[in-house]
Design a protein that fits this description.
The protein has about 210 residues and is α+β, with helices and mostly antiparallel strands. It has helices at about 15-30, 60-65, 75-85, 125-140, 170-180, 180-195; strands at about 5-10, 35-40, 45, 55-60, 85-95, 115-120, 145-150, 155, 165-170, 195-205. The radius of gyration is 17 Å and the shape is globular.
């Protein structure tokens, strides 16, 4: 069964009290067996709208990602976030289809995985299929592995887009190299004809986190 995710982009407006929320949400995730894939890592915004902090939490299923948002024991945590940050949060469905590459190794604190974290509004579905076909060359060359690839999504807070994608690479350098490769730049030009995207490259969470900006 496909995993579910909370795909979160936010701007912290009260850094002092946000620390209380950060500790509370970490304790909630740990007590429920959720896994942080991305948690406030260093990132580079390459396209679209920028929020200053980005998080991806893995849950057992898409249904869990949708329903647990309103769980009575999560509401106090949610309220803490609402009081300290402006957030865009969506429940998104993980990808469990065929992959173009093997899963990259887990990152380390000194060399975390790199991720593409992308939100897309498709304006020309047929042309967007041409993009997916063109991007396959770069994805194969650089070992891209999809956690999320256009499955179901449900907006829980703030603003979202119609399609979500999260792609893992063995490290941030590889994630950047793929984006700037000639093969992907050719595909990107097609994507920009067919869609509007918010696109960032970010380091994965390995247990070490910088203070919130």
């Amino acid at each position: 069964m496909a995993k579910g995710y909370w795909f979160l982009n936010l701007d912290v407006v009260n850094p002092v009290d946000y620390i209380t929320y950060r500790e509370a949400t970490f304790a909630y995730a740990r007590s429920h067996g959720f896994r942080y894939v991305i948690r406030g890592g260093d990132f580079e915004q390459l396209e679209g709208i920028k929020r200053h902090r980005n998080v991806l939490v893995e849950l057992p299923s898409y249904e869990d990602a949708v329903t647990l948002y309103d769980a009575p024991d999560y509401r106090p945590v949610r309220d803490l976030r609402g009081a300290t940050a402006i957030a865009d949060l969506a429940a998104v469905e993980g990808f469990d289809g065929p992959q173009l590459s093997p899963e990259p190794p887990e990152g380390t604190a000194d060399n975390p995985r790199g991720y593409w974290m992308v939100k897309v509004d498709v304006t020309d579905p047929d042309r967007y299929k041409d993009y997916a076909a063109a991007a396959a060359e770069a994805f194969t060359e650089y070992g891209a592995w999809f956690l999320v690839r256009g499955g179901r999504n449900h907006l829980l807070e703030g603003h979202g887009r119609s399609r979500y994608v999260v792609t893992a690479f063995k490290d941030v350098a590889t994630a950047r190299a793929c984006y700037f490769s000639p093969a992907y730049q050719t595909a990107r030009a097609i994507r920009q004809e067919a869609s509007v995207a918010d696109f960032l490259i970010i380091s994965g969470y390995t247990g070490r986190e910088l203070p919130p900006a």
